[in-house]
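Encode chain A's predicted structure.
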Amino acid sequence: MKKKLLQRKSIGVALSVAVASSLFVACSKDQTSSPSGTNAPKATNQPTAAAGITYPLQTQDSLTSWEQINPNLPAFFPNLADSPFGKQLEKETGVKVKYTHPADGQSKDQFNLLIASNNLPDVIEYSWGGTGTAAAYPGGPEKAIADKVILPLNDLINKNAPNLKKLLQQDKELDKMIKTDSGTYYAFPMIRPDNGLVFRGPMLRKDWLDELNLPVPTTIDEWYTVLKAFKEKKGATAPLTAQYSGELNIQDAFIGAYKTANRFYVDDQGKVKYGPIDPQFKDALTLLRKWYAEGLIDKDFALNTDSKTLDNRMVSDTSGATVYLLSAVGKWMDTGKKKDPKYQLVAAPYPTVNKGERAFIGQRDFKYNPAVSKAVSASSKHPDLAVQWMDYAYGQKGAMLFNFGIEGESYTLNNGVPTFTDKMTKDPKYNLQQLISQYTKPNGPFLGDSRKSFNTYKEQDDAVKVWEQTDAAKHVLPGFLTPTVDESKELAKLTTAISSYKEEMFVKFVMGKEPIEKFDEYVKRIKEMGIDNVVKIYQDSLDRYNKR
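Encoded structure for chain A:
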């Protein structure tokens, strides 16, 4: 026990300096055999008696779960267990769960402290991805299993998760995504529907564009014209703003126009590249520097670390453009229209240099979202029960609860189609996403339903069609690659320092605190820090993934 505690403490030290948010053990023959199949995933029926599992489960045991709380829920309930969703999940599964939620904005630090402790809950919902772009645990799932922090799930899924097992048998692509190169399953996945992969992009004040007789910008030059007009004719003090979450969160808008990315990406030849040292990245920095110097970019962008600041900028006359989530379109239009009935937002394509080009990259995620996966801790006293409880979310009835909530309260079935009730959509004080947070789990390990939509404006439906017109599917590096344990040690040693230095210099270049002429010196420094080794590890991991 003392040895294990010391091991956890050493892990905690590594975690405190690891890259968690910037951009996953050998096992037995039984463990490496994986379900496979060809059909698209569908919600399965309730587990049959033949599978030995029926709900509600007959058990006196309870579970503990550490997971982030939906930011909309605390306005109604402080804990998931107290919400209508939490109570209904307990009723339907027969399992009582005690939830612990990290404080808003402190998830990373509290995850590190949790792992370093000797008191892990039964399940932990966090980023159990594989590459340094996604994994919160240094080394990803292979290392977490080797360190006896989480359990390999192959046998547990085979015995206790008929719903998830069936999905993996039906969908080879999904099956390939959620395991390591050695064939080890490590977490219960969030599975996005095909129409839920694009949900972020550039947006502007449409009412301002109309007033100024300007079209929705599609090129860098058109954006410059629009931002200048917003500043000079609308008095916007931060024409283009964005949230800052360890980096300028513009999802490669503007930067992608130069055929690069502010992260690792895959080029047209299938080779992994680190965008921030590309020669053309200098062009992107030069652009952002020019815009910042002319007052077109929020001068305080590096301080905009919370969504409330962004909310305030976009619903006032401070800012007229940003790159952000689809859900914000509805929220901001609700608020903005109360102040000015003409307030309107419109999505813009990811910009290009030349008119008519297709954007090189943008936001497009994969059906497997590793950022909110649930792993079973090696300390769990009830791993079988934990897996049975989690598997409920992949069955037909469980998926309905996770996606739509409680029938008759949050949704009704109209000719078999789930529709949110007036109670959810016509409240005078709260919007749909705020209200539905009480009845569903918007993010987490469950089977997403393509019929679910939180959109309340046509502008939101139109936005997805605009933002998906990119080549992101070819160029985004998957966040679920699984470096080996040795590779992961090398990544943990190199990536934190590289990422920190890159971001420090990015901010200085954009703000004019470092001359752009130092770009070559900056690239040389990153190469000296070992970026070529990191790129090789990701390339090897991608090659192994493609061969699975």
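The CA atoms of residues 286 and 516 lie 7 Å apart.
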